[in-house]
């Protein structure tokens, strides 16, 4: 393909992931307890390590770096500010993962009944839901030794209206922000995989709780 | 139980793992790309990080910290010196994991035919071999959120003579050196799990290669 300068060279084709969705609910989760790669300088490592330790990256193996949840035509989007997102701890992460699939998201921990998780079986659960997609991704990461993804994110995305109209999951998981990918050299990406397994455990717990309450198996009942 | 001082307090009962084995072949593998825990001081983290980066801990998710392989009554034990073990890189790790199940272990890379992996199906392969035990351990680590193991090792152990006489695996995997265990706080030990998955991939490759050569499925044929 020709570049705008007229010269011929390889291009990366970018996809606008939310273009088909009128009101996308989106969550960006940076995966891995370590966000620096093998060729990083000491200064860059020190900077990343500080952020990883101060955020949930080191303790949890991932950190949530962005969130917007569509809550309705009048209320619009729930979108916690950057300052809140930067300071999230273990309890906040549990809350945010619930907020993402709730009609009443809130940043208040320990107040009132909490998020209702009304969309959990549409978005996280079910045969095509986010949990199933994460488990599939995990299987790939257990085997692939070509790429190591540093400071890379998983994007969770769904459209509430399409979900409720279609009565089936349109939730997708995408690997994004792959600016820092290095050669795996025949070794699996154990840093990404560890964080992914930790995230899977959190999502599994939410799906299991919802099933306990409703008596379903996390699949959509229509 | 009473202590030697006469006072009553809890005891840890230690097991001598190799006591039943006349000539144990033993390998000690420190698991995890990060060997420091959440309460470590900055100075301790800097010390560990240096070691983790200089060894294979950061790139591979584990490092081999000790090895002895029994090779016969006359030749005794193959036991590479500490200096060699401290400097192992990716290729050395591949070699050492093969040496452990070979009758002709050697520290020379790229020379001659290399280790014969004659015991691979007895030790790594088979329904009760080390690979099967590692996969079982992985399943536990994907779910348990009580303990985080820092700078903890897996010990691989078998007795060559008992193996050949019994014609079945007596290989065992044990979790050892658990001096730095902290509360998991409801989070899986993603650091240990990532390293364990990486080790499983290395061992799987060796078992698969052996199967390719022999046409067996890694089980003992008697």
TrEMBL record, chains A, B:
It catalyses: 1D-myo-inositol 1,4,5-trisphosphate + 2 ATP = 1D-myo-inositol 1,3,4,5,6-pentakisphosphate + 2 ADP + 2 H(+); 1D-myo-inositol 1,3,4,6-tetrakisphosphate + ATP = 1D-myo-inositol 1,3,4,5,6-pentakisphosphate + ADP + H(+). GO terms for biological process: inositol phosphate biosynthetic process. GO terms for molecular function: ATP binding; inositol-1,3,4,6-tetrakisphosphate 5-kinase activity. The keyword Transferase applies. Its EC number is 2.7.1.140, 2.7.1.151. The keyword Transit peptide does not apply. Gene3D superfamilies: Inositol polyphosphate kinase. Pfam families: IPK (PF03770). InterPro entries: IPK, IPK_sf. Keywords: ATP-binding, Kinase, Nucleotide-binding, Transferase. Transmembrane segments: none annotated. Inositol phosphate kinase with a broad substrate specificity. Belongs to the inositol phosphokinase (IPK) family. This is Inositol polyphosphate multikinase. It comes from Helianthus annuus (Common sunflower).
